[in-house]
Design brief:
Helix content is 21%, strand content 23%. The chain is an alpha+beta fold. The protein has a single domain, classed as L-amino peptidase D-ALA esterase/amidase (4-Layer Sandwich). It is globular. A hairpin with a 2-residue loop joins strand 6 and strand 7.
């Protein structure tokens, strides 16, 4: 029996996850927030050469903090790291977070990561205070089970090579109550398309034509040079360290620990390699967060290892699909801009 997506084909097929966007058309940028119901186990794996991050070291398995309450993905390069401040303030005021003493202030743990979209046509003359803190608060306030894909939130100013990037999501039901899903903001220097310009590298993983159903022509020759035209990308200002990034979150409802979350994040990086060529370049800040709700037990140690490998393998496939969906639904590409995330 072939595996199927969840009912929404979305990261919100994981019970307890909500997603919200805030988009500022004037600056041509935005924020996307993934909110957890409670404190969820999390880890991160960073492969790109120019990451922009916040609170990622907190997730290291040797550190004491047990989990997170939300993740803030943002445009705006380093200025976008302020989005997590808005998320943190919003959650703390609503009594969401850790407490170090009874009656103490709620302390939300909100890792963040940013992509570079400062070279697009939006107005970046925002003065001493950037708009991203406010956008972060607005995004978490808007979080729900249904959300738009494409050129919205953190994907508003994203590019994928020469075409528009954006927000994508996908899910997979593994049976026995176990679900794996992904959300991604796609902004790589590499291409998501094969040389024909219409078939996604991720086409072998597509389910039900979720990103157009294009297939390579019969007898398509092997690809000898998948690297984009460096001259054009340099002219666009994209061949700079940290100027391009794919930000991903993979999620499961399994009861994983921090070490298992780290292994799943590592395995999920293969999804970027399946969907983007080249990837993890010096110019990208690619990273994958992995989070788990703890709802589905994984059994004894031997079973846990097997299930962790199974979840990680599925996460890579789901992430490849989410990347293609993000570009497919972006403004000016084959899909409809900011379309609903249902298949």
């Amino acid at each position: 029996m072939s595996l199927r997506p969840g009912p929404r084909n979305s990261i919100t097929d994981i019970d307890g996850l909500l997603v919200g966007h805030a988009t500022d058309e004037r600056i041509g940028s935005g924020v996307t927030v993934i909110r957890c119901a409670g404190q969820w186990v999390a880890a991160v794996d960073i492969r790109g050469g120019g990451p922009g991050v916040r609170e990622t070291e907190t997730l290291s398995p040797e550190n004491i903090v047990g989990g997170i309450h939300a993740i803030a993905l943002s445009g705006g390069s380093v200025f976008g790291l302020a989005a997590a401040d808005g998320v943190m303030g919003y959650l703390s005021e609503r009594q969401v977070g850790m407490r170090l003493r009874p009656g103490g202030r709620a302390i939300p743990i909100v890792p963040g990561a940013v992509l570079h979209d400062l070279n697009n046509q939006g107005d970046k003359d925002w003065g001493e205070l950037s708009p991203y803190r406010d956008l972060g608060a607005r995004a978490v306030a808007a979080a729900g089970t249904d959300f738009a894909l494409g050129s919205v939130g953190a994907g508003r100013g994203a590019m994928a090579g020469y075409v528009k990037g954006g927000i994508g999501t996908a899910s997979l039901d593994l049976g026995d109550g176990l679900v794996v899903a992904a959300l991604v903001a796609v902004n790589p220097v590499g291409s998501v398309y094969m040389p024909d310009g219409r078939t996604f590298w991720a086409w072998p993983y597509e389910i039900d034509g979720e990103f157009g159903g294009h297939r390579p022509a019969p007898h398509t020759p092997p690809v000898s040079d998948p690297t984009p035209d460096h001259t054009r990308l340099r002219d666009l200002g994209r061949l700079q360290p940290g100027a391009n990034t794919t930000l991903a979150v993979v999620a499961t409802n399994a009861a994983i620990d921090k070490l298992e979350a780290k292994r799943i994040a590592i395995m999920a990086q293969d999804g970027l390699a399946r969907a983007i060529r080249p990837v993890h370049t010096p110019f990208d800040g690619d990273l994958v967060f992995a989070i788990g709700s703890g709802a589905v037990a994984l059994g004894d140690e031997r079973t846990r290892q097997w299930q962790t490998a199974r979840i990680g393998a599925a996460a890579a496939d789901v992430l490849a699909r989410a990347i293609a969906r993000g570009v497919y639904h972006a403004s000016g590409n084959d899909g409809v801009a900011a379309s609903n995330c249902a298949v």
